[in-house]
Design goal:
The chain is mostly helical. The protein has two domains: 49 residues; 47 residues.
Length: 97
């Protein structure tokens, strides 16, 4: 199985002008900042809520740790979903070459 390690910004450099690349990199930076701030606020609000009675992770037995375990499990699910979406969006294009 051959993999291609080109990142999306490098791949798109041939299609955009220098001004377009600069604008795109600025937008990417802004979106990353907003997403980091928003996700930090959401996780902080969830942690502020106190302990949770919902136990999604069967390996944690301390009730105080349920909320942390649930957040970590939710983030792990997001990583898996994004990996699968990325593979279906870009992985087949590189494997067909």
């Amino acid at each position: 199985m051959q993999t291609n390690n080109m990142s999306v910004p490098i791949e798109n450099m041939g299609y955009l002008s220098a001004r377009g690349i600069g604008i795109g990199m600025g937008l990417l930076s802004m979106f990353n900042f907003i997403a980091a701030a928003g996700s930090t606020a959401v996780i902080g609000k969830v942690l502020d809520g106190g302990t949770s009675t919902v136990q999604l992770n069967p390996f944690v037995h301390d009730k105080v740790a349920f909320v942390y375990s649930n957040i970590l499990l939710a983030l792990a699910v997001v990583v898996v979903v994004m990996t699968v979406l990325y593979y279906y969006q870009f992985g087949r294009k590189f494997n067909n070459k």
